[in-house]
Amino acid sequence: MRSVTYVANNDVTLLETGQQLFPAMIAAIDAAQQEILFETYIFAEDAVAGSIAQALMRAARRGVKVRVLVDWFGTGDRACRRIGEAFAAAGVHYRVFNRWFRRGIARTHRKITVVDRATAFVGGININDDMLCDYDPRRSLPAPRWDFAVCVRGPLVEQIHFEAQAQWMRAGHLKLIHRMELFLETQRETRRTGVRQPPGEAVRPMRAGFVVRDNLRNRRTIQRAYLQAIGQARKSVLLANPYFAPGRKFRDALAQAASRGVEVTLLIGVGEFRLQDAVARSFYPKLLAAGIQVVEYRKTQLHAKIAVVDDDWATVGSSNCDGLSLFLNQEANIVVRNASFAQAVRTHIRGGIADGVVVRPEEFEGMGWVRRASYELAYLLYKLTMRVFAIGYA
Question: 72, 63, 123: which is closest to 101 by C-alpha?
Fold first, then answer.
């Protein structure tokens, strides 16, 4: 079961929260000379997002081709229109993904930026203020939203660029001849520029792969990447995710790893949506009985989608471990086979676990029937919804 094609000789840098991502992103945008592809689920209207928008508009005004794609549901209809007006005035090419669910209910949940085919940013961080709740920007968070992205330089950037360009074309209403012109333009630029590295920066020999999930040819690629890594785990599986509601195959893979003596720890975000919390907790008794450690993160909003398996496998991306991300929405993850990168991800997850609250088996042993029934009902409603909208969820 091969799901990830690894490319050697990449430099992949882990970035924690927007405090590290946004300055690096703005610097890359300000240095752009030819092209920027920019894709996000949420593009907020706060001051932090405004600094990104200003950088994109500066690039367009100096002649850089800037193409921005935002999700209609994630960003909101009014915000999409206002942002679009500002971008249009500055010469930024702008599209909105799936307005009013005209192409079904699937969303683009990806967060991708590619600059001059030399630098790419991929991860789970939306374009909004770390200190403001992403689903209610009027609400302040007690600590910066906990999330991650990566900066990629090296041959893998060409694959990321290809997928971002394809998404841009799919989101538009281009006639066939215009699609061909855009494709030929991409080919000409590739031949002319190739894959470039910023001068003075040495490439570390990192093997990395770019995995996307869509409803065409990549329906299960991200889940398969997880299942393959978990199935081969010999020492540890550490996973941090805000929404834990995967299908049976995923849960069984975790339980089987634990039965082999692998340390399996799940760091799960709670406190955002009561229904989501109830669905996740409906799995706890069986997870705990299988020897899996479950830790709830309550310090602030957990938005990270990261995992590390053994000593040299790690992933960072946009995909949650739930039915929406694994079977319906469009997602993008980076998978890295490198010991130092895996250690960095492990250190962050261990830190999150230290900030969390360990779930004890005894909390569920004497659970009352009302509480148990509420968890089971939440799961049944969730499962029914996923069965209707997300093909493959079980």
Answer: 72
Distance CA 314, CA 260 (A): 20
Residue 251, CA atoms < 13 Å, CB-side half-sphere: 20
**Percent of the chain whose predicted confidence (pLDDT) is above 70:** 92
Map out the domains of the chain as residue ranges: 7-207, 208-389
- Assign a CATH topology to domain 208-389: Endonuclease; Chain A (3.30.870)
Phi-psi domain of 63 (left: phi exceeds 0; alpha: psi -120 through 50; beta: other): left
> Cα torsion for 244, 247, 250, 251, to the nearest 10°?
70
Q: Which residues are catalytic?
A: 109, 111, 116, 303, 305, 310
Does residue 30 sit in helix, strand or coil? helix
For residue 172, the 8-state DSSP code is S
Q: Do 182 and 152 touch, CB atoms closer than 8 A?
A: no
- Judge contact between 330 and 106, C-beta under 8 A: yes
Residue (of 310, 322, 317) closest to 229 by Cα position: 310
Say what angle helices 17-31 and 47-61 make with each other, to 10 degrees: 10
Question: pTM of the entire structure?
Answer: 0.92
**Helix residue spans in the chain (DSSP H):** 17-31, 47-61, 72-75, 77-90, 156-171, 176-193, 221-232, 248-259, 274-289, 323-327, 339-355, 362-365, 369-389
HSE (side-chain half, CA atoms, 13 Å) at 188:
7
How far, in Å, CA of 80 to CA of 2, rounded? 38
**Structure confidence at residue 187 as a pLDDT band (50, 70, 90):** low
Within this chain, domains 7-207 and 208-389 share the same CATH topology: yes
The identity of residue 343, as a single letter, is Q
For Cα atoms 115, 121, 126, give the angle at the middle one, nearest 5 degrees. Answer: 115
Q: Are 241 and 268 in contact (CB under 8 A)?
A: yes
Query: Which has the minimum average pLDDT: 21-25, 176-180, 220-224?
Result: 176-180
The secondary structure of 123-145, three-state, reads ECCCECCCCECCCCCCCECCCCC
Please give the C-alpha separations between residue 317 and each of 215, 257, 302, 372, 376, in angstroms, as whole numbers. Answer: 18, 23, 14, 33, 30
Domain 7-207 falls under CATH 3.40.190.10: no
